[in-house]
Design goal:
By secondary structure, this protein is mostly helical. The chain is 58% helix and 5% strand. It contains 28 helices and seven strands. It has helices spanning 9-34, 40-53, 61-64, 68-71, 96-101, 105-127, 133-145, 147-153, 163-176, 179-192, 196-209, 214-235, 242-252, 263-272, 274-282, 285-296, 307-321, 340-351, 362-370, 380-383, 386-407, 417-434, 457-471, 487-490, 521-527, 532-550, 574-586, 588-592; strands at residues 480-482, 496-498, 503-505, 511-513, 516-520, 554-560, 563-568. Strand 1, helix 24 (487-490) and strand 2 form a beta-alpha-beta unit.
Length: 595
């Protein structure tokens, strides 16, 4: 592939896009990590990997703080808690040897960027099965420019970063009839997490309905559907009750009337309440439309009319649209990434008989689409995809009216398809960056205008130095409590919780208080004027510091630039106490503020 790039301009564009994506996202995400903007999930995954190196596979005290035992039953976090009860992610073991070479949370950031970048290169190989280099290169560039790829990549490490690479490899294996590799990739997709089967199910539906590989498609559907049900109802409950008591209720609680529900009960709720399902699918209508437009934009909106895109990406979209909560429709988070492979593959198939139109006017492409989807003079019944043969009698009159309207406006959209597509790519990149995904660009884009919330780069570098000064004083084997953005940097240890929690259950089954506690109050204080969650967190932290210092449980051994450093059983430093008291008086009005 590299040796041919000098002769092929399209291939040079692919490598250029891949390198640009890799360098830019890696630079930004490493900067995000080292300036203490990587957050809690990065710490969870790092602790899972670190524990795996030490033989405690998939255990995490940080994950335990989110478990139903802690959240609902009030129990103490446990160092031996198995995260497999929350998310079943055995595919992470594939990357454990790499982590062993560089056992730090920053390694996961590099790994995520590598996996997502590699997914684009496999996509190009897949596209070349159907397309000439120019269109294949454009689709690959669309992948790298997609908001649903850029946003999650500029975030904490997440298991979904494996999905594009695995799905593109699976589809390439399907096209090549490499069935051993196909089923190996199917296993990898299922191993990414428990809902990986949703994406795989969509692939099976396409294989069956397109009649290309009906038996393999049906087998894929049965495998993925059975895997999801068996895993979430039989295997994961062996580790914890988080699926039935937390995740189904938090995401799909509107469909059930009890405080817990299995995935089987949830499926029955979908079947028994079709009108509620329909309402959830289309509301909020503006949010759903924006989500569609955001996903389609980098592909010049072709997935909207590509049957294979709907077949494969439709099921991950269904999973997202049926959820409740604002984050479900956030295109910058990891769930959006699972939709992209289906959009890419559908776009490839749609362009296969239309490549000669890349430099044609956009209006000609639209006119051809309206004229019954036939580009050339072959038998129409052989040209039309399976879905058009079914619904053609319904859509034909509508297409005819649309074509008549279009022909009466000869000067509309005369620019070439290529230029229009490039414009869509640029807009997608612009929207991705200006949305400040996961606060990665905090130093360029304010988080709020009114009230003004902005942290400059020199100020954050200065503040980061104060945090590192205290981190150097914490032994690598000590138990520790830390605030969200410090957690990733301390997560390579067995015993760690998120501040203001200070207690956890160790391997001996004994509840202990952490040896150290470190809290970045300054960071929370910057964001609380505009964000209620930060205000709540701030008001919860200050009383804890007051109490443990007053009781003599912890000594306040350091306080600098809004970062407080506590050590259990130590004497408080007089200078640190004095600085704390000054700070405490200054923030008193914030504590008196109503939520």
């Amino acid at each position: 592939m590299l040796s041919n790039s000098e002769k092929n301009p399209g291939l040079r564009w692919v490598w250029g896009a891949a390198i640009a994506f890799f360098v830019l996202t890696l630079t930004l995400t490493l900067h995000r990590y080292y300036t203490f903007y990587a957050s809690f999930d990065q710490g969870i995954f790092n602790q899972v990997f670190w524990n795996g190196l030490h033989g405690n596979f998939f255990q995490s005290s940080l994950s335990s703080t989110l478990s139903t035992n802690v959240v609902h039953d009030g129990e103490f976090p446990e160092v031996s808690y198995h995260r497999l009860g929350q998310h079943f992610t055995p595919a992470l073991l594939l990357w454990l040897p790499i982590y062993a070479l560089f056992p730090t949370a920053a390694t996961l950031t590099v790994l995520q960027v590598v996996l997502v970048t590699a997914g684009g290169l496999v996509l190009y190989l897949l596209a070349r099965e159907y397309l000439d280099r120019p269109v294949a290169a454009m689709i690959t560039a669309s992948y790298y420019a997609a908001n649903a790829i850029i946003g999650p990549t500029l975030s904490n490490f997440a298991d979904n970063c494996q999905i594009p690479l695995f799905v593109f490899t699976l589809l390439l294996a399907m096209e090549k009839r490499w069935w051993v590799l196909f089923w190996a990739m199917a296993a990898c997709i299922l191993a990414v997490r428990e809902d990986g089967g949703v994406t795989l199910f969509g692939v099976g539906v396409y294989m069956a309905l397109s009649q290309r590989f009906p038996r393999a498609g049906i087998a894929t559907c049965i495998l993925s559907f059975g895997y999801i049900l068996g895993l979430t109802n039989l295997i994961m409950p062996l580790f914890s009750e988080d699926v039935s008591r937390r995740f189904t209720i938090e995401r799909f609680g509107q469909y059930v009337e009890s405080d817990e529900a299995t995935t089987l009960e949830l499926l029955w709720a979908f079947v028994s309440k079709p009108w509620l399902v329909l309402v959830e699918l289309v509301t909020p209508i503006t949010g759903k439309i924006r989500y569609f437009l955001g996903q389609w934009l980098p592909f010049a909106f072709i997935p909207a009319i590509a049957p294979a895109s709907w077949a494969i990406a439709g099921f991950p979209l269904l999973q997202i649209f049926l959820q409740r909560g604002k984050s479900a429709l956030a295109i910058n988070i990891r769930y959006a990434m699972a939709v992209v492979p289906g959009l890419c593959y559908g776009t490839i198939l749609w362009w296969a008989p239309r490549q000669h139109l890349l430099d044609a006017p956009v209006r000609e492409l639209i006119a051809r689409g309206l004229s019954k989807g036939i580009d050339r003079g072959e038998d129409p019944q052989k040209q039309r995809p399976f879905w058009i043969r079914w619904i053609f009698p319904v859509v034909s009159p509508l297409c005819q009216r649309g074509l008549t309207w279009w022909e009466k406006r000869p000067h509309l959209l005369e620019l070439s398809v290529r230029r229009f597509w490039i414009g869509c790519l640029c807009l997608s990149i612009l929207f991705s960056m200006t949305s400040n995904p996961n606060r990665t660009l905090y130093f360029l884009i304010p988080d709020s205008i009114d009230p003004w919330v902005y942290v400059s780069l020199p100020r954050q570098w200065q503040h980061s130095a104060a945090i590192r000064e205290f981190l150097q004083k914490i032994p690598p084997d000590a138990s520790v409590s830390a605030t969200t953005y410090i957690v990733p940097h301390l997560s390579s240890r067995r015993e760690i919780v998120r501040f203001p929690a200070l207690e956890l259950r160790n391997d001996a089954g004994v509840v202990i208080q952490t040896d150290y506690a470190i809290a970045d109050l300054w960071q929370v204080e910057q964001y609380l004027p505009a964000f209620d969650n930060d205000l709540h967190r701030f008001k919860a932290m200050i009383p804890v510091v007051d109490r443990v210092v007053a009781d003599g449980v912890y000594g306040l051994v350091g306080f600098k630039d809004g970062v407080i450093f506590l050590k259990r059983g130590a004497e408080s430093d007089p200078e640190a106490i004095a600085r704390w008291q000054v700070y405490r008086q200054r923030v008193e009005p914030i504590l008196d503020r109503e939520d």
